[in-house]
Amino acid sequence: MPEPQIKSLFLEGPAGRLEALLNEGTSAAIHAALVCHPHPLYGGTMHNKVVFHTMKALNRFGFPVLRFNFRGTGLSQGEHGEGRGEVEDVRTALHWLREEFHLPIIFAGFSFGAAVGLRAACPDPDVAGLIALGTPVVPVDERHYDFDFLKQCGRPKLFVSGSRDQFGKRAELQVLVDAAAPPKELVIIEAADHFFEGRLAELRSAIESWVRGNFVRH
């Protein structure tokens, strides 16, 4: 099977154009997917290793997968929106996927991308499932994320974190997952840090197993 093509494009967002990459899917794709990157003020972009490996895990099922740079990152216009503006960026990307493919969407976000992306994706009727990687449940500096909305989010959810994640201590993460509406699954990758350094293959395996069990039934 030929290697999927990668398209470079721009999305028209509320703060200006958003730089994006689309890894094309197959003609038989049953879902489309969106992957959001970690905090842009701390080096996060759509080229982040966790984002890339998540894209590869979803693309292997033939899903078209969109990645984009949040406002003010890379070639994306605008300025950092302190999380609030980035929720709107995610909504822009979800709308583009919906209009382009007319398929149910699987959302995935890493760290900051999970925190802001889940907020946009959970109420979206076209989102079939959600993946939160390295969910930042421990406050960092002035950054504190509220995940109470997950109590009303009844879509299938996968949480994947490392046992050594300094921003996602296991006890706090377990409290968050316990409070979230079912269905849900928590995978802890032993010895992995926040960036899954040296454990990216296990991260991909966890994502692929969950997708296969929930969305690809053959």
- Widest sheet: strand order? 1-2-4-3-5-6-7-8
Tally of individual domains: 1
Low-confidence stretches: none
CATH superfamily: Alpha/Beta hydrolase fold, catalytic domain
Order of helices and strands: EEEHEHEHEEHEH
Quick one: how many beta strands? 8
Share of helical residues: 25-40%
Report Rg: 16 Å
Quickly give the CATH architecture: 3-Layer(aba) Sandwich
Number of helices: 5
- Bin the strand percentage: 15-25%
Choose one word for the global shape. Answer: globular
The structure class reads alpha/beta
Overview of the structural elements:
The protein contains five helices and eight strands, in the order βββαβαβαββαβα. The protein has one domain: Alpha/Beta hydrolase fold, catalytic domain (Rossmann fold), CATH 3.40.50.1820. The chain has helices spanning 49-59, 84-101, 112-121, 170-179, 200-214, and strands spanning 6-13, 16-23, 32-36, 65-68, 105-110, 127-133, 157-162, 184-189. Helix 1 (49-59) runs parallel beside helix 5 and helix 2 (84-101) crosses helix 3. The mean pLDDT is 95. The longest helix is centred in the middle third of the chain and has 18 residues, at 84-101. With 218 residues, it is an alpha/beta fold. It is globular. Strands 1-2-4-3-5-6-7-8 form an eight-stranded mixed β-sheet, sandwiched between helices. 29% of the residues lie in helices and 23% in strands.
